[in-house]
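Researcher: Before we compare anything, I want clean individual predictions. No alignment, no superposition, just each chain on its own. First chain goes here; please echo the sequence and then give the structure tokens.
Model: Echoing the first chain and its structure:
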Amino acid sequence: MILGFASLGSGSKGNGTIVRGGDNCLLIDCGFSVKETERRLSRLGCSGEDLSAILVTHEHSDHIRGVLPLARKYRLPVMMTGGTAAAVAAMASYEKRVLIAPHQRFWVDSLEVTPVAVPHDAREPVQFVIGRNQRKVGVLTDLGSITDNVIAHFDGCDGLLLEANHDQQLLLSGQYPYPLKQRVGGDWGHLNNYQSASLLSRIERRKIQSLALGHISLKNNSWERISEAVSPYIETIGNVIYACQEQGFSWQIIE
């Protein structure tokens, strides 16, 4: 195994993604309590002691709720942008906080990490591409539109977790208040199914060994509608899975 990635859970009630390579294991976001995070890690054959660091995409509670408690318990570095740190006052006093900059690559031992700026309604949000031995895994959720910059960084991934948050028709006809519909469906909100399909149409798909579609709305989407949108673009992809809120998804291995 060159790289592996798995999900603790994906959705508005909590998010966490693990990327492992060699002796290093990175947790991207932690939207669960410490106890729940430990339970979900155990399900994947891991524990807090296995983690090398926590990477934070942005300050929304479903991504950051458990970051500081988990980091303090296991003495883990927490890596986030300056904007995210400024939005989370409690992080100011954490001595193992590490500030990162969008598009400025850094290393966590054998893993190369590239933070990628994305359009989302947060202070300075990023998503991540993590590489090792000429292979790379991309984690791309929580963005409202596809930019050329996003395409450039996520093109050529061997593994990809991609947001497919909502179906436009279900969102517009659903019970969300109108301002929330505007936020979710806007350019700084979340990707709809056809935006996700559009991204797949613009990147090199033959390299993708495993595609996980995630951050799926429980109220405004369905697997059937996602499948309809992405089906023209997944014929060359070896494995396509869906990340759910309760189970996430199991280890996907990149060779």
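Researcher: Okay. Second chain, same rules.
Model: Second chain and its structure:
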Amino acid sequence: MFKISYNRAIMRVRVETVTPLSIRAGETGLDPTSSDLACVRTHHRVHGTTVYIPGSSFKGVLRSTAEAQLRGQRFKHQGGSELEGACDPANHRTSCAQHKGDDTAAIHRANCLACRIFGSLSMRGRCAPRDLFPFSASVEISADERANLARANRVEVRHGVLIDRISGAVAGSCLFDQEIVPAGITLHGEIALHNYQAWQLGLLWSSLDELNEGFAQLGSSKTRGLGVVRVEVDALMHEQRYTSEHPAAVGDLVGDREARDYGLFPEVRLPAAEGRARGLSRRFEVSGPDLARWRDAAMTGLANLPRESA
């Protein structure tokens, strides 16, 4: 399925922190004055050292949210077999990691819906969130973005103490402090999709809705009130093989036989968009009111997945 590029998309997103955010670094470093739980940072060539949200952290939240929606449901693809919505990754005997062999179509057909979009040990994923930064451009940024970058890096420090759950008292001298990115900060990033079906775009949008509604949170210390965010999709760039003047999901770009071999689900028609030639491909830019139409089509594809009755 990935040997040929049928379609791909870049979803440009903007994340605003509603409550403070804590994305912890993997190690504390050698600075004795740093916090016990420091924010993860990276160094930008132009803007210097800055806090950010790693793409892996963003992807982890999107995946766990999508799995919670899919788990416990079964679906039937065009190959005729039943398929789990989400496997149990901790059970290596039944998870999608067990699917091995040279028949890539059979492996894809056997992977659950969650692994089809986010990947497993037996198959790469279609969804690749990228790092999110407190600025939208790599070099030239506006005055507002420069102020946002400065505010993001004026991290707050919160002091905490561990409590003995039995006695309710302080557990010895277990004091700690942690850095947090303040509320009201905007971070910009992208989510890349490759050879995607409309329902997969819908599942991604549904996971973003869970973040917007507060049912899912980013980062650590979620039970302490951190990590509530709002996510806005600013634009979507869709590109596909130059075989059609109309944007299409991968199920409409492959033949019927390949769709059955790989166990694809029935497609819905993506809305029209203004396209232009780009080499051997055709590119469609979607923004403004058109985004709502694409979201509705993607959500329709998700809602129309053929479910197995309980």
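Researcher: What stands out in the second chain?
Model: Residues 7-303 form one domain. Additionally, Residues 55-70 form the longest helix (16 residues).
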